Amino acid sequence: MKKVTLLIPVYNEEAMLPTLYQRLIELINRNSTYAWEILFINDGSSDRTLDVIRQLRQTDSRVNFVNLSRNFGKEIAMLAGFDYTTGDCCVVMDADLQDPPELVDRMLQYWEEGYDDIYAKRRNRGEESWMRRLAFYSILQKMSRIDILPNVGDFRLLDRRCVLTLRHLREQERYTKGLFCWIGYRKKSIEFDRGDRLAGHSSWSFFKLLNLAIEGITSSSTAPLRIATVCGILCSISSFIYAIYFLIKTIIYGDQAAGFPTLIVVILFLGGIQLFALGVIGEYIGRIFKETKRRPAYIASDYNEKKLGYDE
Ligand code: UDP
Ligand code: MG
């Protein structure tokens, strides 16, 4: 029997879990030709999420969980999930039922047809802020070299070989949507309507989103460095032309000490560009700094009831 893992990162989802579990069980009963695993990654929840998961596990041995030692964020929680899945394929989904489990039936059909990465593409986006749409699907798209598919989230079915590949991509500042595209393999999209969150509330704050956007850009592209270089070149060329203009003007009309405002404007403008370029370079150096420390991306404290040390 082929085994399907449902990989679900959870962070403060105690209100959502019972309903979610119900829907998952319906899905599992509809597809009893497969063996199933429900793998929860508890991303350092501060509410009773872990207790609820433990209870579920007591009555249902298909439920497994990894408990992270603190909140690492969804991107890292997914990596932990990839490390612990045991299935022949793995479905990544959110806990808030914004990703309808009913779609998994169709994903499984395509998987049987030989596709490796079947991703859900939203026809509409459910409840989402304008900020987010702007940050991601317009800016990010233009900046990065690999296509990051618009309207596609993390909800997808991955064949085991995709999972094994993703295990090797262990960068700490992760932008998983970009990684899914980067690994390639046979992809297939399915369209669906994204609903609103059923309970609890989205844990993305403005700064978390801004961080993810910057991460998305700097992790998949060096375009900002290129932009800084181009700005520098344009500034040099225009200041050179300006200098020649002044030289000729002085030769023809003599020396004039006027022009204080233009001077200030030029100085401030150049200062601004320099700071911007420094900031951009700093972003990349910061990433290099983080990666060179070679810390593990996350620390798991328990797998099911087993306590884990550092290397397990
Ligand atoms: N999540 C997580 N760690 C976090 C934030 C969120 O594991 O730090 C999980 C959360 O429990 C949910 C999924 O990631 O299962 C998506 O979170 P959310 O619904 O808040 O995000 P959105 O739907 O707005 O993208
Ligand atoms: Mg959500």
Order of helices and strands: EHEHEHEHEHEHHEHHHEE
Residue stretches low in confidence (pLDDT < 50, at least 5 long) are none
Small molecules (ligands, ions, cofactors) in the structure: uridine-5'-diphosphate, magnesium ion
The total of beta strands comes to: 9
The largest sheet, given as strand count, sense and whether it forms a barrel, is:
9 strands, mixed
Distance between the termini: 28 Å
Report strand %. Answer: 15-25%
The proportion of residues forming helix, as a percent range, comes to 40-55%
Task: Give the class from helix and strand content and strand pairing.
Answer: alpha/beta
- Oligomerization category of the chains in this entry: single chain
What coarse outline follows from CA principal-axis ratios?
elongated
Mean pLDDT: 82
Number of helices: 10
CA-based gyration radius: 25 Å
Strand order of the largest sheet: 7-5-6-4-1-2-3-8-9
Keywords:
9-stranded mixed sheet, alpha/beta, binds uridine-5'-diphosphate, binds magnesium ion, single chain, 312 residues, elongated
Structural write-up:
With 312 residues, the chain is of the alpha/beta class. Helix content is 50%, strand content 17%. It is built from ten helices and nine strands. Helix 5 runs parallel beside helix 8 (206-220) and helix 9 runs antiparallel to helix 10 (260-292). The structure holds uridine-5'-diphosphate and magnesium ion (MG). Residues 94, 96, 98, 197, 202 line the site of magnesium ion.
